[in-house]
Write a structure and sequence with these properties.
This protein has helices spanning 2-7, 28-32, 37-40, 54-74. The chain has 75 residues and is mainly alpha-helical.
Length: 75
Amino acid sequence: MQLLNNVQPNIAFSLGSACDGLNREYSPIMKSMGVAKEVAECAFRICVGRMTTIAEVHSTINMIVAEVNKLKVIE
């Protein structure tokens, strides 16, 4: 959750599908893919639209990786 809080001002994300609303149950899709419940509960979703550029995708990846690395140092 800390990762999402750190990138939230710059990246729009979701903790689940739009149709789930605030429901944080074990996703049937993740379950059908064989993803463990503990892992699925840590997953988040980032969507891109037709106006999203490749540069924005790369920038987002770089921001997420940088934040993950910061959090790894803190642990």
